Amino acid sequence: MPPLQRLWRSRPGRTLVLVPLGMIAAVCVVDVLAPPDVHLGPLLVAAPALAAAFSGPRRTALIGALAVAAQVFIGAARGVLGTENLIAQIAALILVSALIVVFCLVRERRERQLSQSRTVAQAVQEVLLPPLPERSGPLRLASVYLAAQDEATLGGDLYAAARTRHSTRLLLADVRGKGLPAISHAALLLGAFRAASHRRPALPLLAVHLDGAMRWDSRQWQTEEALDTEEAFATALLLDIPDDEDVVRLVNCGHPPPVLIAEGRARTLVAETVAPPLGLGGLTDATAYAVATFPFRPGETLLLHTDGVLEARDADGAFFPLAARASGWAAARDAAAPNRLLDRLRDDLLAHARGRLGDDAAAVAIGRREP
After folding, report:
1. Are 365 and 301 in contact (CB under 8 A)?
2. Where does the sequence pass through the membrane (predicted)?
């Protein structure tokens, strides 16, 4: 297949490639018909430069070769092919085109590496933080994760669900810090929750287990001098929602309280006793973790969220008014649908923060189905 035909049938850019090709043709026509003192040949260097903006190295090299051929054609048509000036122009065009192709090769390699990194990050997210199941007993679940950093897919916010014989247990947590240390501690909490949520008979014992795992991991290699400055901790909500009772039981470890949307209204479920964040408690007595019980009836929806939702700011520096927005969502006809609730939360949150969050944000919506 001829080079031009391959160029035309290749991947995206078939329309854009007409721009450098048209420029080459226009320069040839104008330069040949122009007066002897007018020389537009040096403009041909713009053709491979434009092609590099949307093409790979092969297509850019082909455009560069066409530009060189056009320069030779102009020299032959005007009878100056053997002059030093034209030879210098052709040599400069070949050199610049070659450099542009080299830059295209470097850019293509970096894009390939970035694509591989994104693939690895996506795989890590699917392993560490997979989407919650849509159904768990009488519950419908939905989750959303919004990263503050561009191209990031995972941070210190986390959520998980576990199915016991007669209930569904959930964890929503926010690990202190950012970057790899936060992801490491998030992975630790997720593993500890998934391993113990089936074996611990009560939420307080599960909280003790998670607190101990967090403290052990963050302190096992630290010196006494570093303990006060490098402590790792996580605020968390632990929930147990039985199948046969219209209630939700929760333990709050320094985390923003959940919001209950019921009967067209939204209210915050504030526990009377709030335990220290996981990793700071050092509590071996399960009675220190008080369990709060709230009604959770069919047709109602629970919204769990991290502080990244509350701390999102608008152009004037105002925080995201979750309580007011949730009241508006509660009046919607499909307010009981967890996925629709999170769609509204995501859209309103990003609109409020102009598309850029100051901190990672995660949310989980739980709806109890009608019997």
Report:
1. yes
2. 12-32, 38-54, 61-80, 86-106
CA–CA separation, 365 vs 301, rounded Å?
7
- pLDDT per residue as tens digits for the range 247-275: 999 999 999 999 999 888 999 999 998 99
The DSSP secondary-structure symbol of 284 reads -
CATH of domain 130-368: 3.60.40.10
Cite the beta strand spans of 108-226 per DSSP E: 135-136, 139-146, 157-163, 167-175
The model's pLDDT over 310-357, given as tens digits with 9 standing for 90+, comes to: 989 988 889 999 988 998 898 887 777 899 999 999 999 999 988 888
Residue 203, CA distances (Å) to 118, 267, 308, 337 in order: 37, 23, 25, 27
Q: Residue written as tokens 């303990």? A: 227
For 188, the token pair is 């630790």
Sheet with 167-175, strands from edge to edge, namely: 157-163, 167-175, 234-242, 247-253, 292-295
Structure tokens, 99: 């450099």
d(CA 177, CA 143) in angstroms, rounded, equals: 22
Residue boundaries of the structural domains of the chain: 3-122, 130-368
List 239's β-bridge partners, or say none.
170, 250
Spell out where 275-330 has E strands: 292-295, 301-305
Indicate the residue type of 108.
E
Helices (H), 10-83: 18-33, 46-54, 57-78
pLDDT in tens, 153-179: 566 789 999 998 889 999 999 988 776
CB-based contact 158:129 (threshold 8 Å): yes
Torsion over CA: 320, 323, 324, 329 (sign):
positive
What are the backbone dihedrals phi and psi of residue 138, each rounded to the nearest 5 degrees, phi first?
Answer: -85, 10
